[in-house]
Specification:
The complex is a heterodimer of chains A (306) and B (336). With 306 residues, chain A is mainly alpha-helical. Chain A is built from 13 helices and no strands. The two termini of chain A are 45 Å apart. In chain B, 39% of the residues are buried.
Amino acid sequence: MTARTDTQSAGWREWLTTDTPQSRAQARLGRAWAGWTAFRRNRLAVAGLLIVLALVVVAALAPVLAPHHPYAQDLNNRLMPPSAVHWLGTDAFGRDILSRLIHGARLTLMIVTLVAATAPLAGLVIGTVAGYFGGWVDTVLMRITDIALAFPKLILALAFVAALGPGIENAVIAIAITSWPPYARIARAETLTVRRADFISAARLQGASSLRIILGHIMPLCVASLIVRTTLDMAGVILTAAGLGFLGLGAQPPLPEWGAMIASGRQYVLEQWWVAAMPGLAIFIVSLGFNLLGDGLRDVLDPKGD
Amino acid sequence: MPTLKRGLTLLVTVAATLLGLLLVTFLIGRVVPIDPVLSALGDRANAESYAQMRTQLGLDLPLWQQFLRYVGDVLQGDLGTSVLTSRPVLEDVLRVFPATLELATVAVVLGALLGVPAGVFAATHRGRWPDHAIRLLGLIGHSVPIFWLGLMALLLFYAKLDWAPGPGRVDVFYEGMVDPVTGIVTVDALLAGETEIFWNAVQHLVLPSAILGLYSVAYIARMTRGFMLDQLRQEYITTARVKGLSETRVVWRHALGNIAVPLITVIALSYASLLEGSVLTETVFAWPGLGLYITNSLLSADMNAVLGGTLVVGAVFIALNLLSDLLYRLLDPRAR
């Protein structure tokens, strides 16, 4: 039995690591496997991956995992220290902090996903178009990018939220609006390195339209460095969103957003420290996870970065 | 005339960037769901005075004319009046800015004093445990929510250990005892010869500036490491070693001397980001600077103050970016 699994896995490994892949799928899987083996050797990066996966699992299973309802108040048990019933203690309304943190993971994941789905995409489109067409298109787009790059991000995000009104959606919009320029720069740089390549000329001579070349040939080549940068930025996004929540501009009570939870625990911090300490710890662990993961991914996907 | 041409290009870039910033603050001011006429007149204005005020504020003009008017006002130093303090915003901003400057300056000095040696040490121990430890510490520094760290530091060093004073710039009974000449309490206390107040202010600075500075340590250390590794690969380093110079001299004199210019750029850039990043630190430590001013105005929907403060931070941010660029060109012969 054991012997058979061994030969089977050896067969798989050989199929994945062969120098002469028989199909496109095999080549792709082989490259992914090579990346994974390199990534696996970086223990910190694997820890980061596990933290991020844990965030996803906790967010998905929040109602199952949370021992109490996140909004259930119990005024007889307010500000209770960590105990067997309330592992991380209770807040000023007697709500279970652990349960609120578990449900708050959903908000964090939502913010991260929304920003990651918008800002890098906008940057990718702007950067590839500018790099591919060159000339005045490039000049105009990159001037705008440079100007936006020189703005103070956090303060502008604050001003945007102040204008749009507090709330988690507006916080996401403000963060996305202020964070696209670096992605445009990266995408343009990657585009410039490939746009004179022979395979692009070949595609053009076969009659492929600019749209087709950008979408089908250039954008896929920019994705690796954009993923690395996005992952590294996600820690910053989490911290900014938490900062907005802390200032009362992000998610509004009673939503269990981690930054807002710290703000509500602030007035008790000298006596009932756990109310503010626990959500901060959660923010720290999750953003450390993204930082470790991004750092490891950079080594695997973008060796030039070091 | 390449220098002149480059100078002109730089000037145009800066002007365009500032104009872009003005456009953004202008547009933010337009999308606010607060009616500027009503906030100037009060809710009970009748239709006639409403229309009059509207014309007076220029709100009946096309958008681009309103923008030109706005740019003209800002260039004359008119950032509007704060609803909260009923003083001109510029006056308010100038009053609170020195506090932010003081905090960010001490923070960036701390950041450079820790970050540069850490980066050099990481580079000379590349791939070994000090390198990994410094890299991990950097990642940790970039993962901690700064406002939370501030609260926890107050809890530990102020409430539990009593090593540091509480929030604020000086103890309550020293408040307002020195004349604000520069607005920087430590400097003002020295000017007034009040050494006791000076030391009190220094003690109040330690915690917030250390926490703010922590954020720049990671960045400065990482950049130093990168620059240093580039230098240590070069042949002149081998020559210096072969000549018999001590390793300390090779690393700290020869190599570090050659990366001084890009390092200054990096430090100037982190200075800019610390000025901006002080918003959250100031809120936690009740530090009466620009960040606290902006957040207090935000919470009372005082848009003139928010946008005026944003504009000033933005302008300083852009100026520091420009300064680091200029320094680089001036000091590095290769960039000339």
